[in-house]
Design a protein that fits this description.
InterPro entries: Calcineurin-like_PHP (IPR004843), Metallo-depent_PP-like (IPR029052)
Protein name: Calcineurin-like phosphoesterase domain-containing protein
GO molecular function, one term: hydrolase activity
Radius of gyration: 36 Å
Keywords: Membrane, Transmembrane, Transmembrane helix
Number of strands: 23
Organism: Rubroshorea leprosula
Structural class: alpha/beta
Shape: globular
Length: about 1050
């Protein structure tokens, strides 16, 4: 971040209004252009590389399949390791680290293989040149930036220059520059091609493309790429002159003649093309930076203020958070969630319950709990209201649902007709407001932020305000029933209870606005009296999966005193215990069942819940058998069971619950499922294909686990028999025999690997859901661990066989730990002459630190050599001959490569395990779909109480959630009065999809519709359901 300090500028004292207009910060910091330099360098590198005869790579491999196999394995593993970072789902910090990490160890491995030497590319020289130029460039640019910031401080350049550059940007630019110099050196040589220049300057042959008479010549040159490359090297990268042309630079900078008092012997008079190329790139970087930072937007983008503001609006984007990475090994939020859950279960459950505190603090009015009953909506003729649950995960999905909820109306197709659904006057939220844990950050960023973008709070709203005496009505409203805006009532879910309901109480019960939705709610449970005899009971199940005795007392008294015999009640809970009890073969919610069966006695017409992040509706279907069979089924306690947890969280499967059919002795039939059973089963396949891309943080766990499993097997010194076999089948037989021997070694002799395997086995068995029997848990856990152990052992042997092959062919372990540095010193004077003895003086001035840094830097870069030399010493002298520091260096070098090999495989094995479990065994429904982090398939349910007392139910869904948003032009151009309510606007939401055809308002559709008859109706379960496809 740049400093906001504004020192006195020389420009302010001059009467130069035109200069001030251009050079001051009228426009903010312009675009970066460094990407164009990167593209230019990449194109140039590809040109030089493609100009060589690539078929020499095939000719020089000695027709030996082992080199092809080694290249395929090496490049394949590196590709699969880097594949998740190609998309846009990875955080820049880890993505950048992975790119540098991959480039480092991949180049360090490739330069030992024979193919590059056969192509005439000496990577050793390129590496040494790269490191030299890289370090020099970093030092030079750091000095430049310090000087430039000093000029800004004294006022010689404009304020935008005061923005400090990112260190990572400097490092990347230096790397690109160094690579360009290395490619030039490899293909053009260090010395210039001495050719006599013509007395008159001619147009370069590259521009002859526009001359008809020379087109055939140019085409021939493209067909003979070598000749074209030579021409480019000789003409474009010829020497820029001699030292005599630049006497000041040659004496002070290039050759250090001043340091030796002008008597330097045998000083070269030729400026190296390497230096000219480096100086050209450095000059371009400095020129580009100076122009951007000191002249601003006006010189390169002469836009008017109005045009600039319009372009700025087009670039505006919301700051939404990504979906929660549930398999992250580095997320502090997940570790905090686990800790909060343990504390909640051990401390709050059964010891301290916030619901007891709420009951003790509730006020009693006329025999009913005044803080819990709300009847201000009961006088309306009809009412629209919405239900959603499980929001607060990814910002895109949460905002997509909130945007639909905020629209004044939605035009939808139902069959051949178009129906208009009004915005709900009431919004019911069924819990789990923010993931993964309740905190100020997750509530503000994952819940309040999307809803405030969808429907803005009133102008006087302050985020830090605490509502001490709710409901805090607006100034012009005297009582709650006069308020005509949308209102919101919320129950907590299990995630909201992880901190004992503290965050929920602070942000829901002691705040008045969720975006533009007014929240009069005071407690975590409530009762709403709606028009035409309809009621909503919002129950707080906490972590018990049941209501407490104080809730039961309140609702039971309310039923006796207020609920009429012909009234209809909607029970809203967070968990759908009818599905979860069937799935887990358990019985929960006994107090809720007692309330429904013994107190409501058929007046509960509908149960709605979230927790499961899909949509399913089960309805009672009368039996077609004889009447005595129907009587044996008992009374219909609840005609309809509805689950809709598609408010923003990751998707859950539906096909796992397809066989549910009974509750309270009543038979039910699944009338609608979204996504469909077939789509749900197909989506699960993503665990095999996309697990690592969606859960790249799992690398930190998986790579370490695999390394521990095979730690004791490094090194494998007796692998000669694998390489000596003549046939491919013999190679395979010997290889898998070595895998079996390594497994026996882990079981019989290893301590570290065996302990890791046993710990992993215990974890895998405990990871299997208790839905299956203990015997099946044991079998599934053992098979899971054996798959991981076999994969780890195979990867270990592949790495060891590759190292052993290179050692036998004298490509590794040839001259000790510092082979690259020793080679560099042997050719340094030949390729990089130092006639003034500057390197010797630097070594003397730094007390030997300068060569030592280069020496150990090259050794640290050459990881394969360090690993191979140490491995050879262990195989010859035994592990006891290795010092503790040497052991640490060896295992660290092995881990650097083994981690790249293992992370794609561990994700593949674990993803396959989840796929098999969810589709074949119907277990791990939560784990198998949380890994996919699917933001699509979002839905909410809209209800309409008609004047006849019927309840129309519409479930609206969006199949695909947009990932890119822009400022909604309709929202932006709509007149906004200072005190205007946001719900009175025609376009209340700030952001719309960047692609208009993907906007939720345009893609929303009805996936289920049915009608529940109200009081005095003979058919209480008449419905017109439509099953989603």
């Amino acid at each position: 971040m740049g400093s906001d300090r504004q020192p006195a500028r020389l420009l302010d004292t001059l009467k130069m209004e035109r200069v001030r207009t251009i050079l001051t910060h009228t426009y903010p910091y312009p675009h970066e252009h460094s990407r164009h330099a990167i593209i230019a360098v990449a194109v140039g590198c590809l040109f030089f590389i493609s100009s060589d005869n690539m078929h020499t790579l095939i000719e020089k491999l000695d027709n030996n399949i082992k080199w092809w196999s080694m290249y395929a394995c090496l490049l394949g593993f590196f590709y699969f390791f880097s594949s998740p970072f190609i998309g846009k789902t990875i955080k820049p910090s880890y993505s950048n680290f992975s790119r540098w990490y991959i480039a480092w160890i991949l180049v360090a491995a490739l330069y030992h293989l024979p193919s590059f030497l056969s192509m005439g590319v000496d990577l050793r020289m390129n590496l040494s040149l790269f490191l030299t130029i890289y370090v020099s460039s970093i030092l030079f640019l750091l000095v430049f930036h310090i000087i430039f910031l000093g000029l800004w401080y004294i006022g010689l350049v404009s304020r935008v220059a005061g923005k400090r550059p990112e260190i990572l940007t400097i490092l990347q630019n230096c790397a690109v520059l160094s690579i360009a110099c290395c490619v030039f050196y490899s293909h053009c040589g260090n010395r210039a091609m001495l050719r006599k220049r013509p007395p008159e300057r001619k147009i370069s042959n590259w521009f002859s493309f526009f001359k008809k008479e020379e087109r055939n010549t140019l085409l021939a040159k493209f067909l003979r790429m070598n000749e074209l490359k030579d021409e480019v090297c000789s003409s474009w990268f010829a020497p820029v002159g001699s030292a005599s042309d630049y006497p000041l630079l040659s004496k002070w900078v290039l050759y250090g003649e001043l340091a030796c008092n002008g008597s330097c012997p045998a000083s070269s008079d030729e400026i190296s093309p390497i230096y000219s190329l480096w100086a050209t790139f450095i000059g371009l970087y400095i020129a580009n930076y100076v122009v951007e930072r000191s002249t601003g937007w006006a010189l390169t983008h002469p836009l008017s203020v109005e045009e600039y503001e319009n372009s700025k609006k087009k670039q505006m984007k919301p700051d939404f958070l990504d979906m929660v990475p549930w398999y992250s090994g580095t997320s502090t939020d997940l570790f905090k969630t686990v800790f909060d859950l343990l504390v909640s279960v051990t401390v709050f459950v059964g010891r301290f319950d916030m619901r007891m505190m709420q009951a003790a603090m509730s006020k009693v009015h006329d025999g009913a709990q005044g803080d819990l009953l709300y009847d201000h909506l009961s006088g309306k003729e009809d009412l629209w209201f919405d239900f959603m649950a499980d929001t607060g995960d990814g910002g895109n999905s949460s905002y997509a649902v909130a945007r639909l909820l905020a629209q004044p109306s939605l035009q939808l197709h139902k069959g051949d007709s178009v129906c208009t659904l009004q915005r709900g006057d009431l919004l019911l939220v069924g819990g789990d407001l923010a993931y993964p844990n309740p905190s100020a950050f997750t509530y503000e960023r994952r819940l309040f932020c999307p809803f405030e973008y969808a429907l803005q709070p009133p102008p006087w709203y302050k985020k830090e305000h605490i509502a001490a005496n709710k409901p805090e009505l607006p100034a012009q409203v005297s009582e709650l029933k006069q308020y005509d805006g949308p209102q919101c009532f919320v129950i907590p879910g299990n995630h909201d209870w992880f901190d004992g309901l503290q965050t929920f109480m602070r942000y829901i019960c002691h705040k008045s606005w969720l975006g533009g939705w007014f929240m009069p709610q005071k407690k975590s449970y409530f009762a709403l009296q709606l028009p035409q005899g309809w009621w909503v009971f919002g129950l707080d199940l906490a972590l018990h999966c049941d209501i407490d005795v104080y809730q039961f007392k309140f609702f039971s008294q309310l039923i006796k005193e207020k609920v009429g015999e012909s009234d209809s009640v909607i029970i809203m809970t967070h968990e759908p215990n009818w599905l979860l009890d069937w799935y887990w073969n358990d019985i929960s919610g006994k107090n809720v069942s007692h309330l429904i069966c013994d107190y409501l006695r058929g007046r509960c017409k509908l149960r709605i819940a979230g927790d499961l992040h899909h949509y399913m509706r089960h309805s009672y279907v009368p039996s077609e058998g004889p009447s005595h069979v129907q009587q044996n089924e008992g009374p219909v306690r609840v005609p309809h069971l509805l689950v809709n947890g598609c408010g923003g969280a990751f998707l859950h499967p539906t096909h796992v619950f397809r066989n549910f059919n009974k509750l309270y002795g009543t038979t039910y039939e699944c009338k609608a499922a979204y996504p469909s059973f077939e789509d749900s089963s197909r989506i699960a396949l993503g665990n095999i294909l996309k697990f690592r891309k969606k859960n790249w943080q799992f690398d930190f766990i998986g790579g370490i686990i695999y390394f521990i499993l095979v730690f004791s097997n490094f090194p494998q010194c007796k692998l000669g028999h694998i390489l000596r076999d003549d046939s491919f089948s013999g190679h395979l037989r010997s290889f898998f025999g070595a895998v079996w021997n390594a497994f026996l070694y882990v079981v019989e002799q290893s301590y570290v690997s065996l302990a890791g395997a046993v710990l992993l086995l215990i974890t895998a068995i405990c990871f299997v859901p208790s839905k299956v029997s203990r015997k099946k848990q044991l079998i599934i856990g053992v098979l899971h661990v054996l798959a991981h152990l076999a994969a780890a052992l195979i990867l270990m042997l592949l790495l060891e066989v590759g190292v052993e092959t290179c050692i036998q062919h004298k490509l590794l372990a040839t001259s000790g730990y510092h082979s690259l540095y020793q080679w560099y010193r042997s050719v340094e004077s030949e390729h990089f002459p130092d006639p003034t003895g500057l390197r010797a003086r630097m070594e003397q001035w730094t007390f030997g630190l300068y060569p030592a840094c280069i020496k150990y830097l090259m050794s640290a870069f050459d990881i394969p050599e360090v690993m191979a030399v140490t491995r050879s010493n262990i195989c010859k002298k035994g592990m006891a001959s290795l010092s503790r520091g040497g052991a640490v260096i060896y295992y660290a070098s092995v881990f650097l490569y083994f981690w790249v090999f293992s992370t794609p495989v561990v994700s593949l094995v674990f993803g396959s395990y989840l796929y098999i479990c969810i589709n074949w065994l119907h277990i791990h429904f939560d784990e198998a779909f949380s890994s996919l982090r699917i933001a699509n398939y979002k839905a909410f349910t809209r209800f309409h109480i008609t004047g006849d007392g019927d309840l129309e139910v519409f479930t609206l869904a969006v199949d695909k959630v947009p990932k890119e948003w822009r400022l909604d032009p309709d929202w932006d151009k709509e007149d906004k009065q200072p005190q205007q309510w946001s719900h009175h606007r025609n376009n209340p939401s700030k952001w719309s999809a960047a692609a208009g055809h993907q906007d939720p308002v345009n893609t929303v559709r009805i996936v289920d519709h049915f009608v529940i008859k109200g009081k005095d109706q003979t058919d209480p379960v008449s419905c017109d359901g439509s099953v989603s496809r």
